[in-house]
Specification:
By secondary structure, this protein is an alpha/beta fold. It has a single domain, classed as Luciferase-like domain (TIM Barrel). The chain is built from 14 helices and 10 strands. It has an 8-stranded parallel β-barrel with strand order 1-2-3-5-6-7-8-10, surrounded by 7 helices. α6 links the parallel β6 and β7.
Length: 323
């Protein structure tokens, strides 16, 4: 059986380019197209449109923050995209960050893990046609009328902290990881997800661990390093990611980043190549494939190929699937 490999769309690309990537992924045998939910195109609308341009590949939000839609709206939207894609949809959920959920949506993140637990319970109940449970944060009496959704739409959770990783293992069908070095996957993610699975008497069998692998096979290492440092710069300023990088052993990079403030270019240069090498797959096609295999060895069951700004993503998509 061929090992699963997915890829992450760039929602800032033109829609025509997005369609080309999606068709190529379908042709090359990628498992899933992931679409992030950032300050660009809406991920659900994008995936619903791409469902009309693809035949086989699955479609997933990676990830939709729970605080930008009520559980009822999330269940309704997910069911609609799943229906439009003939059952190829995966609902990827995350908490987002306090600065964006507050600034963009006027929503306060209270207690992320309990609130995610409640939210997931309401969404699953609505999809299953059951009465949603009453929670402290989330309540709904929504029920579908005249339309029956697929009740078992897969739900993946984004997680970084041990508590959220355990929750994903306990209640979700998979886990989505962004910017997690391979050693963090091995040393923290797998043990914590395993503990979550054990809470409900399950093993890791059948549970998806989808980890992003920023990749470039176009041979221009300088451009790739600059592109990934630009991307990481924003995450080095977010508390959830800072805690993860610290736990992964990159406290020195965080300290250098902080010391370089307020100069953004100096902060980017402070992100060391050791971290980049552990996080990314950059170089020749064989280097990209080795980088993907490094994540598989760490425990990722479905690595997610992600492009690096300034590099040729089409070449990378082809290289990663080459024999």
């Amino acid at each position: 059986m061929t090992a699963a490999l997915s890829f992450q769309l760039r929602p800032t690309e033109s829609f025509a380019s997005t369609v080309e990537y999606a068709r190529l992924a379908d042709e090359l045998g990628y498992d899933t197209i992931m679409c992030s939910h950032i300050a660009a195109r809406d991920s659900f609308t994008t995936l619903a449109a791409l469902a009309q341009h693809t035949q086989r590949v699955r479609l997933a939000t990676a990830v939709a923050p729970i605080y930008h839609r009520s559980p009822a709206s999330m269940a309704q939207t997910a069911a609609t995209v799943d229906d439009a894609s003939a059952g190829r949809f995966i609902l990827g959920l995350g908490t987002g960050h306090r600065v964006t959920m507050g600034g963009w949506h006027g929503q306060e993140i209270g207690k992320p893990v309990p609130e995610m637990r409640e939210y997931l319970a309401v969404v699953r109940a609505i999809l299953a046609g059951e009465a949603p449970p009453e929670g402290e944060r989330w309540r709904s009496n929504f029920a579908f009328v005249g339309f029956t959704p697929r009740p078992d739409i897969p739900i993946y959770l984004a997680g970084l902290s041990p508590a959220m990783l355990r929750l994903a293992g306990e209640l979700a069908d998979g886990l989505l990881l962004w910017a997690c070095p391979a050693n963090y996957v091995r040393d923290v993610v797998i043990p914590e997800v395993t503990r979550g699975r054990e809470r409900v008497g399950k093993s890791l069998d059948g549970f998806t661990i989808a980890a992003s692998v920023p990749s470039s096979a176009d041979g221009d290492r300088t451009v790739a390093l600059d592109g990934i440092r630009t991307e990481l710069h924003r995450y080095f300023g977010l508390p959830f990611y800072r805690a993860m990088f610290e736990a992964a052993g990159y406290g020195k990079d965080l300290a250098a980043y902080d010391a370089a403030a307020p100069d953004p270019e100096a902060q980017k240069r402070a992100i060391g190549e050791e971290l980049i090498e552990n996080l990314c797959a950059i170089g020749e096609p064989s280097d990209v494939r080795r980088g993907i295999d490094r994540y598989r060895a760490a425990g990722a069951t479905n690595p997610i190929l992600t492009g690096i700004t300034g590099t040729d993503f089409t070449a990378t998509l082809r290289a990663a699937k080459a024999a």
